[in-house]
C-alpha cells in the first residue's frame, strides 16, 4: 500500500467528521491514513506562567486526541491502516509540510484553539489553495449520500486539475458527475456596455470551450455518468446550489471567467463559506499519483 491521506485532528466534532471523511476516502483509494495533531510552540514557551506538569499534560492531551481519532477511523473503516503523528509548530505550516507527499489533506471546517478557530477556520482557509495536494474541507453535518460529485470548470487550463480529481472521485465512488460552467454577465462589463449579439457570441464561445474541455475526460472515464450543467449565474451561487445535492464539490484555486483569480480565488473562497457539502480545493499543478485511474483538479 503506497501513499497516504493526511487528516488534521484536534478533538473537536468537526475534526472527527474530517477523520471519518478521510477514512472513507483512504479505503476508496487503497491508501493508509495518517492522522496529525499539531501543538503550537508558543504553548510551551511560558516559563513564568506555566504550572508544573503543564507540558506533560499537553503531550498527554495530544496522545488522547490521536487515540480518539484513531478509534473514530477504525469504527468507520475496520482494518484501515492508520498511523499518527504528534507535531509541534505552526499548525498551517505543519499541515502544508504534511501535504507535500500526501495524496490529499483533509481538515474540518473549524475546531479548537489554534486549529480552525474562525467561522470557516483560519487553518482550513490557510491550507486550501496552498497545499501541494488537493485539500478537502469536510463538513460537520448529517451525512446524506446523493451519489453525485459536482465540479466547477471554466474551459481554462487551470480547470484541468479539478476535473481530474472530480472524475477520479466519481469513478471511485461509482457516482455521477455534475460539471458546472457558470457564466456571469457582469464579468464582461464594461467590455460590453449593453446586452448585444456580441455578448451572446461570447457566451456561446465559453459554453463550447467548457463542453470541449470535458471530452477527453469523458473518454478517459467512460464509466462515469456526466451531466453537463451550463448556467447563467454567479459561480459561487451556481456551485453552492450544486453542492446541495452533491457528496463533494470540487473547485480550483485559480482560473478565469470568474472561477477564481487569486491563489485562493474569490470563487473557491466563496464556496468554502457557502457550500452544503464537503469541498475539495485543487490547486492548478496538483499532480495525482495514485490509484492508477488518474487523479486531481479547477
Task: Give a structural overview.
- By secondary structure, the protein is of the alpha/beta class.
- It has 2 domains: 4-138, Rossmann fold (3-Layer(aba) Sandwich); 148-282, Rossmann fold (3-Layer(aba) Sandwich).
- The chain is built from 8 helices and 10 strands.
- The protein has helices at residues 13-29, 54-76, 91-99, 122-127, 160-173, 197-220, 235-243, 266-274; strands at residues 4-8, 32-39, 82-88, 104-108, 135-138, 148-152, 176-182, 226-231, 248-252, 279-282.
- The protein has a 10-stranded mixed beta sheet with strand order 3-2-1-4-5-10-9-6-7-8, with helices on both faces.
- α2 (54-76) links the parallel β2 (32-39) and β3 (82-88).
- α1 crosses α2 (54-76) and α7 (235-243) runs parallel beside α8.
- The protein is elongated, with a radius of gyration of 20 Å.
- Mean pLDDT is 81; it is low at 111-120, 255-264 and 289-298.
Short characterization:
The protein folds into two domains: about 5-140, HUPs (Rossmann fold), CATH 3.40.50; about 150-280, Rossmann fold. It contains eight helices and ten strands. The protein has helices spanning about 15-30, 55-75, 90-100, 120-125, 160-175, 195-220, 235-245, 265-275, and strands at about 5-10, 30-40, 80-90, 105-110, 135-140, 150, 175-180, 225-230, 250, 280.
For the largest sheet, list the strands in their spatial order.
3-2-1-4-5-10-9-6-7-8
Q: How do the SSEs run, as a string of H and E?
A: EHEHEHEHEEHEHEHEHE
Helix content: 25-40%
How confident overall, as mean pLDDT?
81
Amino acid at each position: 500500500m503506497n501513499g497516504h491521506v493526511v487528516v488534521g485532528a484536534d478533538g473537536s466534532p468537526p475534526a472527527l467528521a474530517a477523520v471519518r471523511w478521510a477514512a472513507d476516502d483512504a479505503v476508496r483509494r487503497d491508501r493508509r491514513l495518517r492522522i496529525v495533531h499539531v501543538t503550537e510552540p508558543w504553548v510551551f514557551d511560558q516559563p513564568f506562567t506555566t504550572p508544573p506538569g503543564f507540558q506533560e499534560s499537553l503531550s498527554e492531551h495530544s496522545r488522547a486526541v490521536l487515540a480518539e481519532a484513531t478509534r473514530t477511523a477504525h469504527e468507520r473503516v475496520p482494518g484501515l491502516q492508520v498511523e499518527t503523528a504528534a507535531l509541534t509548530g505552526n499548525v498551517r505550516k505543519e499541515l502544508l509540510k504534511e501535504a507535500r507527499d500526501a495524496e490529499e489533506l483533509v481538515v474540518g471546517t473549524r475546531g479548537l484553539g489554534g486549529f480552525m478557530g474562525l467561522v470557516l477556520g483560519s487553518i482550513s482557509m490557510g491550507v486550501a489553495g496552498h497545499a501541494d495536494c488537493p485539500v478537502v474541507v469536510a463538513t460537520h453535518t448529517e451525512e446524506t449520500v446523493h451519489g453525485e460529485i459536482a465540479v466547477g470548470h471554466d474551459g481554462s487550463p487551470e480547470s484541468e486539475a479539478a476535473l481530474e480529481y472530480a472524475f477520479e472521485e466519481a469513478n471511485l465512488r461509482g457516482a455521477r458527475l455534475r460539471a458546472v460552467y457558470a457564466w456571469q454577465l457582469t464579468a464582461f462589463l464594461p467590455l460590453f456596455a449593453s446586452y448585444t449579439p456580441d455578448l451572446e457570441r461570447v457566451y456561446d464561445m465559453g459554453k463550447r470551450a467548457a463542453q470541449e474541455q470535458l471530452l477527453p475526460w469523458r473518454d478517459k472515464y467512460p464509466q462515469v455518468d456526466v451531466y453537463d450543467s451550463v448556467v447563467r449565474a454567479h459561480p459561487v451561487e451556481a456551485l453552492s446550489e450544486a453542492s446541495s445535492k452533491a457528496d463533494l464539490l470540487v473547485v480550483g484555486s485559480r482560473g478565469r471567467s470568474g472561477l477564481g483569480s487569486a491563489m485562493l480565488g474569490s470563487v473557491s473562497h466563496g464556496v468554502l463559506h457557502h457550500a452544503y457539502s464537503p469541498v475539495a480545493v485543487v490547486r492548478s499543478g496538483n499532480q495525482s499519483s495514485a490509484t492508477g485511474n488518474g487523479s486531481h483538479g479547477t
